[in-house]
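Exercise 7b. Backbone tokens:
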């Protein structure tokens, strides 16, 4: 009986030690697994953040390309510094082709600075001719490769002829604004490619 007690006590002690050892291993494993789960979660969040950032950068790059294309179009319609004479010459040519007499006033004293390299310059045009000539000239002005924003248009009978106006000649006064760009305009405003890391 004493032997059975010793065997039972020994088995109980070994079982308790085994359970303690297994419990310690399980607890250590659970703690290690918990740490790995935390590391995996951090990595998953980091990868998700990088993925979202990459999508955002791609969308931003696409938006920037679209903006650059629009800016390039707007820049192409601007009167460039040093090209003012070309602009005036093209207005004179359209008047000559349309058969109207025209006077041009580029009001640089009243210009509005938009940025250090961009301005809005008021433009005054007065021309006279027959009604079809005037319409032809307005159409030609609209088709010029420049941004000319008409802010006012007044059409009246040509008073210089007095009451004798058999051709139905009219006089037109146009108030407009042109967009001007400096030679020092930054490349982005000119629509030049800007590289974006993807």
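Sequence design result:
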């Amino acid at each position: 009986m004493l032997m059975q007690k010793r065997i039972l006590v020994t088995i109980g002690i070994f079982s308790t030690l085994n359970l303690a050892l297994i419990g310690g291993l399980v607890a250590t494993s659970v703690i290690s697994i918990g740490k790995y789960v935390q590391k995996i979660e951090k990595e998953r969040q980091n990868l998700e953040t990088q993925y979202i950032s990459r999508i955002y950068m791609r969308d931003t790059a696409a938006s920037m390309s679209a903006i650059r294309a629009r800016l390039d179009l707007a820049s192409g319609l601007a009167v460039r510094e040093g090209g003012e004479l070309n602009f005036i010459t093209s207005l004179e040519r359209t008047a000559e082709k349309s058969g109207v007499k025209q006077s041009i006033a580029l009001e640089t004293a009243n210009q509005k600075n938009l940025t250090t390299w961009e301005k809005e310059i008021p433009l005054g045009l007065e021309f006279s001719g027959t009604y079809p000539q005037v319409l032809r000239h307005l159409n030609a002005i609209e088709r010029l490769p420049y941004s000319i924003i008409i802010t006012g248009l007044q059409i009246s009978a040509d008073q210089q002829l007095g009451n004798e106006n058999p051709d139905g000649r009219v006089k037109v006064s146009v108030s407009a604004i042109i967009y001007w760009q400096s030679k020092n305009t930054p490349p982005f405003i000119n629509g030049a490619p800007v590289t974006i890391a993807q």
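Instructor comment: The longest helix spans residues 2-76. Strands lie at 79-80, 101-106, 112-113, 118-130, 148-157, 169-181.
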